[in-house]
Amino acid sequence: MEAVRAAVESRRADLGRFDQRGGEAFARRLASAPERPIEGCSPVPDSQVNSARDAGSDLHLEVSPAGPRRAAVAAALREAVRSGRLAPGTRLPPYRSLAVDLGVARNTVADAYAELVAEGWLTARQGSGTRVAERVAAKPQRVPRKAPGHRADAPVHNLRQGQPDARSFPRAAWAAAVRRAVTAAPHDAFAPANPQGRPELRRALAEYLARARGVSASPDQIVVCAGFAHGLRLIFGGGVLSGPLAVEPYSLPFHRGILADAGVRTIPLGLDARGAHTDPLASHPGISSRRGARAVLLTPAHQFPTGGPLHPTRRAAAVDWARGRGGVVLEDDYDGEFRYDREPVGAVQGLDPDHVVYIGSVSKSLSPAIRLGWMVLPPYLVDAMLAAKGLREAWTGVTDQLALAEFIESGQYDKHIRRMRQRYRARRNLLVATLAEHAPHIPVTGIAAGLHAVLRLPPGTEASTVKAAMWMGVALDGLAEFRHPDSPEPHRDGLVVGYAAPPEHRYRPALDALCRALPPPDG
C-alpha cells in the first residue's frame, strides 16, 4: 500500500505541473508516457482500465470533421466556453475519458487542453482538475431609476382569488411522506404508470372522501387526473360526454374556454342567494329538448365566485333532473374543506353516485404546484374515461401520487386542513373588520367558506375601482370577469378579493391599499 500511495503522490505532482507555463510540453509527455506497473501490485485488467477512463463526466462537443484533430477539438472547446454553454468553473472530464468519447488519441485532447490553458480559456490545478477559467464579467448596464410615483409592472399586493398561502405548504411533512411512500412502494410503481392512478392513492381517496365529504365510491370508480381543468378536458375533449352543458352564470373564464375549444355550447342558469336555479332544468327549452343538455356543471358547496352553498331543494332538483334525463351532474368541489361559520356541506354525489361526477383536487388545500386531482365516476363512465386518458399516464407523477396517499393515510392531510382553516378564518375576519372600519358602505358576501370574498360595489364603479386598485399596487378581479356572456342575470358590480395568498407581513398593508381604492360612500 505504501508503494501505491507513493505512485499516486508522484502522479499528482506531475499533474501540478500542468499549468500555463509548461502545460503543452507536459501534456505531450504525459500522453505518451507508458503505463508503469507499481511494485507490489497486481496488473490491472484492460477492462478495468477502460472503465476508469470512461468514468469522467459527459461533455458534448461539436467537433468539426475537417482539419487537424487537435485544432478541431480546441476550437470546439473554445466555442463552448465563448458561447456560455460551459460556464466559468465547470470541471472538464479527464483528457483520457474525453479522448475515448471523441474517438481521438489521448495526446490530441491533452494538447488541446494545454493550448487552451496557455490561452487563458482553461485552468489546471493540482487536485482540482481542468476547469473553465473564471473570466471578468461584463459590467452590467445601469438601469435608469423610475420616476417617483411610477407604477411597478408587478403588483405589490396579491389579492387574487384561487391562490392558497404558498408559504404554509407543509414542506417537512410532505418530504417525510415522499420518503416513506417511495421506500415502501412496490417495484411496479416505477414501471409505466396506469392511467387510472396508483391503487394506494385511490384507496386513500375513497376512504377520505367518504369520511370528510360524504362521497360514496369504491377505489375502482376513481380516476386520478391533474386537476379540475384537466378533468374537464378529458370529459368533453375525450368524448366521455358531449354538449350542450348547463352551467352556472358565473365561473372561471378559462373553464368556459376549455368547453368552447371542445365544441361544447354552454347554457347559463339563473342565480340567487340559494344558489343556481336548478328547478327549471326540466322545463328550460335549451336543456329539456331532445338535443338539449344532458349534464349540468355546479359548484354546490361554495358557488364560485359569489359564495354560498346550493340549497338542499335545488341539490335534490339537480339530481332528480339527471336521473330522469339519463344525464349527470358535474360537481366541482374546488374548496369544500374550508368552511368557517356553517356546518359542513356534503357532496351532492352522495345523493346519487350513479348520476354525479365528483371532481376535486389539492390545488386549494395543498398547492397548485402539485398537479393532482380526482374524478369519482359512475361505474359506467370509468372505461370511457380511461380510453380518453390513453394507455399510459401522461399528466401526473407516480411519486406525487404515492406521497399524497401516504400524506392522507398518516393523518397529515387532515392536520394541514385544520391548521389552514384556522389561518384562513383569521384572514377572513381581518378583511371583514377592516372593511367595517374603513368602508362600512361596502357589503361583503360569500364569507362563510372558501378563500375569497365578494365586495358589492355601487352600480357603474367596478371598472374604475379595479383600475384604482391596480394603481395602488393591488391585484384583484372584478366580478364581471367571471360572468357568462349569455347570463340571464343582470350584471352586478363587485370585486372578488382573495385573502389567502399575501404573506403575513403584507396582508394588512394590502387591505389598507384596497380600502383606499374603494369608491366613497356617495358612489
Automatic annotation (TrEMBL):
Gene3D superfamilies: Type I PLP-dependent aspartate aminotransferase-like (Major domain) (3.40.640.10), Winged helix-like DNA-binding domain superfamily/Winged helix DNA-binding domain (1.10.10.10). Residues 132-165 are annotated as: Disordered. Keywords: Aminotransferase, DNA-binding, Pyridoxal phosphate, Transcription, Transcription regulation, Transferase. CDD domains: AAT_like, WHTH_GntR. Residues 67-135 form the HTH gntR-type domain. SMART domains: HTH_GNTR. InterPro entries: Aminotransferase_I/II_large, HTH_trans_reg/aminotransferase, PyrdxlP-dep_Trfase, PyrdxlP-dep_Trfase_major, Tscrpt_reg_HTH_GntR, WH-like_DNA-bd_sf, WH_DNA-bd_sf. It comes from the Bacteria. PROSITE patterns: HTH_GNTR. SUPFAM superfamilies: PLP-dependent transferases, Winged helix' DNA-binding domain. One of its GO terms (molecular function) is transaminase activity. In the C-terminal section; belongs to the class-I pyridoxal-phosphate-dependent aminotransferase family. This is PLP-dependent aminotransferase family protein. It comes from Actinomadura vinacea. The lineage of its organism: Bacteria, Bacillati, Actinomycetota, Actinomycetes, Streptosporangiales.
